[in-house]
Amino acid sequence: MDSRRPNGPNVLITGTPGTGKTTLGAELAQRTGLNYINVGDLAKQEELYEGWDAQYQCPILNEDRVIDELEDTVGPGGNIVDYHGCDFFPERWFDIVFVLRTDNTILYKRLEQKGYTGKKLEDNIQCEIFQTILEEAVDSYKKDIVHELPSNTPDDLEANLDKITIWIEEWRNSH
Ligand code: DAT
């Protein structure tokens, strides 16, 4: 057992909204027994905000409070963390980082279905086109722990579940 991570590895799943982080993360937690943390939902529940973004008409995340709130849970390992950003988490938290990627036309439909319109919809599509979250991940973590995963189809979802489940099993066997 890894004394630093008695509960297992910490996995970060990131990507533009709509790429499938929640779908993948929640199912992965079911399959592996790891603890699933949706940072957006946690922020809403605990009101971890600092003001209001007038442009996007949404509350602004208080990143320091998110870190304080999660430190005791994430420290000992065994978590799958889901968020559409990744540069404010402590680098030491994660053993592996997956960045989900979705083709524009597919992402556009998914975000429309979620009720996104106008500037919010366009900005999220731009975010995916410019690989913003992938670059953020590569800039924030060691390159060899960052992996890009296609997330367009149910087959992609299955392949990603298999791949990450195997990685977690191998981690458990070698620590
Ligand atoms: P996120 O948590 O990244 O915002 P989500 O998990 O809520 O995304 O997924 C957005 C929508 O896309 C939802 O209706 C489920 C669907 N979806 C997710 N992954 C998919 C995949 N690999 N193939 C087809 N649909 C997928």
UniProtKB/TrEMBL annotation:
Q: Which UniProt keywords apply?
A: ATP-binding, Cytoplasm, Kinase, Nucleotide-binding, Nucleus, Ribosome biogenesis, rRNA processing, Transferase
- Any one of the GO BP annotations: rRNA processing
Residue ranges for the region (NMPbind) are: 38-61
Q: Where is it mainly found? A: cytoplasm
What SUPFAM superfamilies does the database record attribute to this sequence?
Answer: P-loop containing nucleoside triphosphate hydrolases (SSF52540)
Q: Could you say which enzyme class this protein belongs to?
A: transferase
InterPro entries attached to this UniProt entry: Adenyl_kinase_AK6 (IPR020618), P-loop_NTPase (IPR027417)
Q: Name one Pfam family in it.
A: AAA_18
State its location(s): Cytoplasm; Nucleus
Q: What are the GO MF terms of this UniProt record?
A: AMP kinase activity; ATP binding; ATP hydrolysis activity
Presence of keyword Nucleus: yes
Subunit structure, interactors included: Monomer and homodimer. Interacts with small ribosomal subunit protein uS11. Not a structural component of 43S pre-ribosomes, but transiently interacts with them by binding to uS11.
Similarity comment: Belongs to the adenylate kinase family. AK6 subfamily.
Return the protein name. Adenylate kinase isoenzyme 6 homolog
Q: What's the source species for this entry?
A: Sinanodonta woodiana (Chinese pond mussel)
